[in-house]
Amino acid sequence: MVLITLRAGAQAATATLDQLVSAYAERRGFSGVVLVARDGKLLYHAAFGLAQAGWNTPMGTDAVFRVGSLSKPMTATLVMRLAELGRIDLDQSVDAYLPELYKGTEAGRITVRQLLAHTSGLADVAPRYTDPFWTSAARRRYTPTEFAREWIPGKLASAPGVWRYNNNGYFLLGLIIEASTGNSYADNLRQHILQPADMDHSGVFDGRTILPKLAQGTVQADDGTRELPQYIDPSVSYAAAGVYSTALDLLRFDRALADGRLLGPAAQRQMLTDLGNHYGYGWNVDDWSVAGGPARPVVSHTGSVPGYQSMLVRSLSDAVTIIILDNAWRGQVVVAMARDIADQLHGKPVALPKRSLSDALTPVLYKHGLDAMGAAYARLRAGDDYDVSEAALNAFGYSLLRKQQVAAAVQVLRWNAQAYPASPNVHDSLAEALLAAGDIDGARAGYAQVLALDPANRHAAEALEKLRRTVPDHPPER
Question: What is this structure's pTM?
Fold first, then answer.
């Protein structure tokens, strides 16, 4: 681990942050780089884990990571800069820039502004990496035009105006950038964002160029070992999720925004205004409340591609920046760590994270079976090292459902219902798992328990009504 402190007044805060982040590395498997700054000055900068597991190479604070959808704030900033320069009209329609692809189509009538705000109604790529799109089509290399022609249809999936996170919308923004300038998305990003911000170790990942100090992404296999992630061709990521960077370069991006090198004040206000669903143009826009104090305006974004997870948080009221780059694909860990760091910086006592129940029990299930998993759970819950909260058990149960481990999911969600019997949500989750297992009577009983605890619960009422319509209480005898 590398720890850098640049201000004498930050010594106490640094020690506290190091204790917190080190616990995430030791107990929750975090591998990557964490950077915390105020007014651009480092409070904390540390590296954990391995950059190259096969070579047992330690992580360095200068490691390069793929940042996934953390590319979207950069793409949005680039579009806003080109709008300032008069190259892009935010209210112009898509077909004005891409007539060969979308002239005369529903998608052609949506605007650049709607693409930026995720309100276009475009059909999007599948949300889960287990979908056949990601396991087959996404392994091919495309030009941006080829991808749009094949995977971004002219017919909309929903009416424009309703917020729905949309990767395809940001892919089209990359094509619009190219059409309006005559240069590639990568060249525009370099000219208008990376160079003005002095981001010398960032660019668009192409899968071919050798990148010094690139951290290799890994994922956790069901048996608990680490393995390489599924392959997805980088051309599929493009302007939506294709950027690579370092923690220091992302801090330089933050500072270049703050001091006006990238955008003027009016464009930044547009970009960082909540337009609904806590989202502006390429940024999440929130108020984070800490320890009962006043809510602080915060803009942020996460990013995820197989093997990597990232998060950038900018607290606008006090110029605090939190950057987390991870090469172990630990999405929940990264988000929880960012919130804990923000709380701790602003004076809220934060408990150190507990170990993951899912990480401990999933390998037991796959290696030794359901009964062994139950015995291990009985041992672990008796101590205080593992997170056996309602939220942790619920997340574990749903992760097993997604893996088609239905019997194990039912067992875990039953533990949750036994541990937190007054929570309507645990009975709702258990009913869903029982339904997946084919236990109709058990599902009915579960949804009925939800309504007993929460009579206004619409989901449970609708689920019960659907069961009454499709599965009679007493099927006719044969």
Answer: 0.92
Q: Where is the domain boundary, 325, 345, 365?
A: 345
Range of the domain at 433: 357-470
Q: Beta partners for 34? A: 46, 324
Q: How far apart are CA 101 and CA 147, in angstroms?
A: 11
- pLDDT, residue 294, reads 79
* Alpha helical stretches, state H, 259-330: 265-271
Residue 216 and residue 301 in one domain: yes
Distance CA 63, CA 51 (A): 7
Q: What's the token pair of residue 360?
A: 């401990």
Same domain, 317 and 430: no
Residue type, 129: Y
Q: Do 340 and 362 share a domain, yes or no?
A: no
Q: What is the pLDDT of residue 472?
A: 63
Tell me the average confidence (pLDDT) per consecutive run of 10 residues in the chain, 478 residues long.
38 72 96 97 97 96 98 98 98 98 98 98 93 94 98 97 97 98 98 98 97 97 94 97 98 98 97 95 92 84 97 95 97 95 88 94 97 97 94 96 96 98 97 96 96 95 91 53
What's CA 151's distance to the chain center, in Å?
22
361 and 338 within one domain: no
Q: How far is CA 150 from CA 112, 143, 165, 185, 205, in A?
A: 21, 11, 20, 19, 22
Q: What's 221's domain CATH number?
A: 3.40.710.10
Identify the CATH number of the domain in which residue 421 sits. Answer: 1.25.40.10
- CA dist 201 and 394 (Å) reads 40
